[in-house]
């Protein structure tokens, strides 16, 4: 099955991050926002604490899940994780584009196969390009990447597009009108902007 269409209702365009320490904390936030927000992000912190129960907690309130675990491993392992994500019924999940084209293709194909097997929608697969915590100096000094941040983002985004059924997330996305985009939270972007401004002075 094909993934869902991009949301038209404004409230469906907002994804609230459940960046909390426990399922109880997440449940309180979900209850406060029930009916106002329809999509929530579950990241490494909550998923490590609560596992699939966190996804179930969102679903039982009639909302959808962006599973933000940034899979990055060998293709077979990532394909298996993508299949599980599809079986959990998440709306979206993501992988690190730096894992390579074969890994991203495996993720997309794994999710599609599981969705077809179960007769459910295929989740949207997103590729993280360059983390906002990395600037040009860190890319060069720590990762051995000689291009600019923007250049490396474009390189990874192109690789993601070539993998098939993958769109990009992060600083810059493709210009394809069919691409779905997810941008970072405003709080994090403001903190990052402030950090970079301070570093420039």
Order of strands in the sheet with most strands: 1-2-3-4-5-6
Along the chain, the helix and strand elements come as EHEHHEHEHEHHEH
C-alpha-based Rg, rounded = 17 Å
Count of helical regions: 8
Our measurement of the CA-to-CA distance between the termini, rounded to an integer number of angstroms, reads 51 Å
Overall mean pLDDT score? 85
How much of the polypeptide forms β-strand, as a percent range?
5-15%
CA-based shape: globular
Outline the structure in words:
With 201 residues, this protein is α/β, with parallel strands linked by helices. The chain has helices at 23-33, 44-50, 52-59, 75-87, 101-118, 136-143, 149-163, 186-200, and strands spanning 16-17, 39-43, 64-71, 92-96, 124-128, 166-169. A six-stranded parallel β-sheet has the order 1-2-3-4-5-6. β1 (16-17), α1 (23-33) and β2 (39-43) form a beta-alpha-beta unit. The longest helix has 18 residues, at 101-118. The radius of gyration is 17 Å and the shape is globular. The N and C termini lie far apart (51 Å).
Task: Provide a quick synopsis of the model.
The chain has 201 residues and is of the alpha/beta class. The chain has helices at 23-33, 44-50, 52-59, 75-87, 101-118, 136-143, 149-163, 186-200; strands spanning 16-17, 39-43, 64-71, 92-96, 124-128, 166-169.
Describe the secondary structure blueprint for this structure:
Elements: E1 16-17, H1 23-33, E2 39-43, H2 44-50, H3 52-59, E3 64-71, H4 75-87, E4 92-96, H5 101-118, E5 124-128, H6 136-143, H7 149-163, E6 166-169, H8 186-200
Parallel strand pairs: 1-2, 2-3, 3-4, 4-5, 5-6
Helix pairs in contact: 1-3, 4-5, 5-7
């Amino acid at each position: 099955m094909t993934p869902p269409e991009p949301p038209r209702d404004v409230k469906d365009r907002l994804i609230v991050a459940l960046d909390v320490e426990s399922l109880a904390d997440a449940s309180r936030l979900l209850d406060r926002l029930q009916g106002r927000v329809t999509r929530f992000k579950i990241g490494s912190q909550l998923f490590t604490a609560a596992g699939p129960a966190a996804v179930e907690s969102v679903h039982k309130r009639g909302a959808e899940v962006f599973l933000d675990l940034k899979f990055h491993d060998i293709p077979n392992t990532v394909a298996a994780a993508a299949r599980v994500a599809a079986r959990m019924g998440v709306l979206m999940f993501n992988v690190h584009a730096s894992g390579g084209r074969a890994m991203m293709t495996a993720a997309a194909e794994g999710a599609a196969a599981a969705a077809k097997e179960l007769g459910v929608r295929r989740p949207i697969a997103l590729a993280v390009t360059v983390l906002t915590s990395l600037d040009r100096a860190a890319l060069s000094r720590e990762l051995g990447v000689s291009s600019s941040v923007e250049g490396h983002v474009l390189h990874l985004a192109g690789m993601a597009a070539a993998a098939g059924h993958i769109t990009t997330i992060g600083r810059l996305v493709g210009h394809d009108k069919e691409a779905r985009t997810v941008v970072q939270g405003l709080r994090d972007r403001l903190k990052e902007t402030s950090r970079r401004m301070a570093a420039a002075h």
